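anyone seen this seq b4? input:
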Amino acid sequence: MAEQGGRQDLQSDSTPPVSITVFFPCYNEQNNVAGVVQRAVEVLEDLRADYEIIIVNDGSVDNTGRVADEIAATNERVRVIHHPRNLGYGAALQSGFRAATRELVFYTDGDGQFDVKEMPLLLPLMAEYDIVSGYRMNRQDPPFRRLAGWLWTRMNDFLFALDVRDMDCAFKLFKRAIFDHITMESQGALIATEILARAVRKGYKITERGVHHYPRTSGRPTGGSPRVVLRAFKEVIRLRGRILSDG
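predicted toks r here
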């Protein structure tokens, strides 16, 4: 790959531009959202992509919504979806996937714990696969969350006949057409499991790639709260029944 102006030229003049939606689910990320969007713009411009960026503000009670609107006002490629109240992580992902208009759709959280500059490494895998699911290398979370995440992944792999290393890693790339053919119902933490399980049953192919994970520098995580975890465990058995009954 050639270098131009000190930056890596990731898109050859002889290849068609990547058509991609990048979206960020956000809840109370006022100090992080501008940075993650700016990094995404830099990556997508380097790719010379046909792109859009969507910020899903899931009922934040801080200034996330205002910051997101300010970003969108200065960049026509950025738009914002506002939930009137906090509907849950699954609802935020559903909004992003349903609003996506490009051929590929990528999401990562708006908390800055992943580096969107690693996203182009996933793109070549889409020639053979329909989904690339990241897994966290050296996960930067407290021991309890790491253990809970490992148990959650192993349980869901068993229940849904999957083989995924890190179910809830928020660094995933999809062919957008998948979402024309699968149902999404989960409003909370079960959403990643539901999407992957339904996609596999439809015959879509998944591969994985390791990505770096960084400590949160601002804001508070919500995904590991006891209320969220308990609700997810209650939902998982019901989801398995629904997916099996769908045939």
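The first helix runs from residue 33 to 47. Confidence is low (pLDDT under 50) at residues 1-8. kinda curious what u guys think
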